[in-house]
Write a structure and sequence with these properties.
The chain is an all-alpha fold and 274 residues long. It is 72% helix and 0% strand. The protein has one domain. Helix 5 crosses helix 6.
């Protein structure tokens, strides 16, 4: 891959993600349900990722690696996108975005548009990591199989976490409780952890330790960016602020005994009720 190829991919990916998130803004304005923002982002990023995986074929011809990377991206987007779409169809608004809109007041439309364009901006490293993985000229090998397994585990783990939470919420007795069963007893956000883990697969597919393909190291920006978003920006902070408002001391007790992100055995209880 040349610098010209990388710059062209960067421009195409950036423009596509910006347009997709502008579309997400229009959907929010029309429906009033900000839950569709994440649905649009997931399917949009999936489409850009698949296109990015196929893009290298224009220069070098289609390969097994590109087919595998495109399939992995499609599987991720389909599973997560359908889950978020199902959830969004059952709510009137996403509490995280709704809180921001209330705080912005009359300036909410402009601020939301800017926020979604920022999401497009920080999604660029994710799509680029897919492009870099698909562009790796090294023959498909053991390291690539490991990357496929990592993404398979991530998709399965996130699906299990989502299913456990759905079953917990479906029981009327759990209406005012905090889910701390299954994976949720080891991490306060196991779905976010597995979401991040899936992006670790692309550096495994992109990095060539033999030095033939130095561009692959840039794929590390994908999981780094996703970790930053989930742990410090749009994932854990606003969601936990919302949970503290709704569950108060129950959630504080959960925070005290359960790791926030990486799954770990629960710590000894320090008081409070689950």
């Amino acid at each position: 891959m040349t610098l010209i190829h990388f710059i062209a991919a960067f421009v195409l990916i950036s423009a596509s993600l910006s347009a997709i998130m502008a579309g997400a803004w229009l959907v929010w304005r029309r429906t009033g349900n900000s839950g569709w923002v994440d649905t649009t982002w997931t399917f949009g990023l999936g489409a850009v990722g698949i296109a990015s995986a196929v893009l290298p074929a224009l220069a070098d011809g289609f390969s097994l690696r590109q087919a595998v990377v495109a399939a992995l991206m499609g599987a991720w987007a389909l599973r997560l996108g359908l889950h978020i779409a199902s959830r969004s169809a059952g709510i009137t608004d996403d509490p995280r975005y709704a809180r921001l809109a209330r705080d912005w007041g009359a300036d909410a439309p402009r601020q939301m548009f800017l926020l979604l364009q920022k999401q497009a901006l920080v999604s660029i490293p994710l799509a680029l990591s897919v492009f870099l993985a698909a562009s790796n000229p090294v023959p498909f090998g053991v390291q690539d199989v490991l990357g496929v397994l990592v993404l398979a585990i991530a998709i399965a783990g996130e699906g299990i976490a989502d299913a456990q939470l759905a079953r917990f919420r479906a029981r009327p007795a759990n209406r005012d409780r905090v889910c701390d069963t299954g994976l949720w007893g080891w991490s306060r956000h196991p779905n976010y952890f597995f979401q991040w883990l899936g992006w670790v697969a692309y550096p495994l597919l992109a990095i060539d330790f033999g030095g033939v393909y130095p561009w692959g190291w840039l794929a590390l920006a994908g999981p780094v960016c996703m970790y930053w978003l989930l742990v410090h920006v749009s994932g854990i902070p606003p969601l936990e602020a919302h949970m503290l408002e709704r569950r108060g001391e129950r959630f504080r007790a959960y925070q005290a005994r359960t790791n926030a992100f990486f799954p770990m055995p629960p710590r000894a209880a320090t008081g409070g009720r689950p």
